[in-house]
Write a structure and sequence with these properties.
65 residues, 0% strand, 2 helices, elongated
Length: 65
């Protein structure tokens, strides 16, 4: 794992927060909620991929398969 994934997650969080605030201030609360939810889902997919790689590495190290 390198440091770039942390920057990617942080940039998605900042972008999601800014878009959410802009949409809330313009009166579009439902779209702001959807934008925030999509940012969370995007980060979750990234984390799930990293966890899958971790399990594959552990499986390879200990010769489980």
């Amino acid at each position: 794992m390198d440091i770039s994934i942390i920057f990617k997650i942080a940039s998605i969080g900042i972008l999601t927060a800014v878009v959410g605030q802009i949409l809330k201030n313009s009166g579009k609360d439902d779209i702001a909620t959807l934008a925030t939810l999509s940012g969370v889902i995007l980060v979750l997919f990234m984390v799930v991929g990293m966890i899958g790689e971790l399990f594959s590495t552990i499986k390879t190290i200990f010769n489980f398969g």
